[in-house]
């Protein structure tokens, strides 16, 4: 048994030793703490929110498109109604011209009767029984004049009523069209503002996640999911870089809708594995497709036919490229929620566990 003084010295040495930490272990502990903090920080991000914003933007775009089509149809209806009204007014004008022509014989009869008064050569001799051919002719002229005058009066009355009806109809059509067009224009304007607001929120969310897009408040052109259809109008492998949305993985890009869905998928992957998805390839232009095709025969589509050239495919690494690895299995179970999938052909012919494609129709995330 050591003396009391020695026992106290031993106790002091043990206490000091317990306070000393091996440098390697200290650094490992710091790295683990930092890694835990980063994972916790990432866990605060909601990948579903990005997908929700994308779907809201797409829905707003669809509503805007439908409202715009309705407005265009209304304007076409207005043009058709105006054309019909113009035709009716032309018909009315022609009728009035015919009426003016029918009045001319009546005017000549009146002039004739003025030259040969009925009282002198017509009615009085007829009543006294002293009538001749001139008298009968005069009486016939009077009857014809009265008849034609009556017909003219009736025609004038009909044309006047038709003119009033058409004027009222024209006013009603124009007022209704103007009101409907104003309402539709206001609706289109409201939907456009709402769509811009959603796209702006989406852009801001992408910027926070490391996507290098427009940071000055305007909707990013290349990462606007509403531009995806426009990008689809370009030939395979010839999509301009301005129409492609960059990924968090530097040097890689995709079509806007595919890129936004991939960012959401990558954030969910980061939650699980503590790191984003590793990407070796995404969009390939035509020259890159030709290079890969000749360097890796049998492992690349014919240039101009690859989904990489449409901005709808990625080649992955970091474990996903190994069939049945934890990363690959996780992707199989979760990627379709974000519109991404491993195509059937890539399981066997050729076998490419690293190749994944995007299809918005299979996006099941609510």
Give helix % range: 55-70%
Strand % is 5-15%
- Unreliable parts: 1-44, 215-219
The rough form would be described as rod-shaped
Biggest β-sheet: strands ordered side by side in the sheet = 3-4-6-5
- CATH-assigned fold name of the largest domain: Muramoyl-pentapeptide Carboxypeptidase, domain 2
What is the radius of gyration computed over CA atoms, rounded to a whole number of angstroms? 44 Å
Quickly count the helices.
9
Distance between the termini: 73 Å
| Overall number of strands | 6
Order of helices and strands: HHHHHHEEHEHEHEE
What oligomerization state is this entry in?
Answer: single chain
The domain tally reads 2
Give the helix/strand class: mainly alpha
Report the top-level CATH class of the largest domain.
Alpha Beta
Largest sheet composition: 4 strands, antiparallel
Mean pLDDT: 74
- In CATH terms, what is the architecture of the largest domain? 2-Layer Sandwich
Coiled coil: 50-102
Pfam family, one: VanY
Domain D-alanyl-D-alanine carboxypeptidase-like core: 252-360
InterPro entries: DD-CPase-like, VanY-like_core_dom, Zn_M74/Hedgehog-like
